[in-house]
Amino acid sequence: MTPIMSKSAAAELVVAARMRKGLTWAAIADEIGAPLVWTTAALLGQHPMTPEQADAVCRLLGLDEAVAESLTLQPARGINPALKSDPTVYRFFEALSVYGPALKELIHEEFGDGIMSAINFKVDISRRPDPEGDRVVVTFDGKFLDYKW
Predict the structure, then answer these.
(1) Domain boundary residue, one of 50, 71, 92
(2) What is the pTM of this model?
(3) Which alpha helices (DSSP H) does the chain contain, by range?
């Protein structure tokens, strides 16, 4: 019996196939009818896909059932520590380091004692034209979870 392909190995194959076929992440998300950021994260190993989603992606990308099987596995969520040095990823750490305490205070002021869920959560990215250079707009949309004692 062969071992199940790791999610990181499957992600590498997905990325390579997507690039070789000239497909965008948005085209793949449209193909499976799922949100763009969620689909991209799932294909990079951060969410499990349904068997139907995994099969559709693999058909689109010309990948085999070993990749599809891996895409359905429960992930070990998080980020590879080496990725923290990537300039784009690091800017998110930097922004949360600077603005995280203020956002926490404002959430507590507006909603009370609690947190924003990262499980009952949506995230979106868009482009906003600006005369000084286009702006990246990232929206975090998480359910408020109040602490109950």
Answers:
(1) 71
(2) 0.84
(3) 7-21, 25-32, 36-43, 51-61, 65-71, 87-111
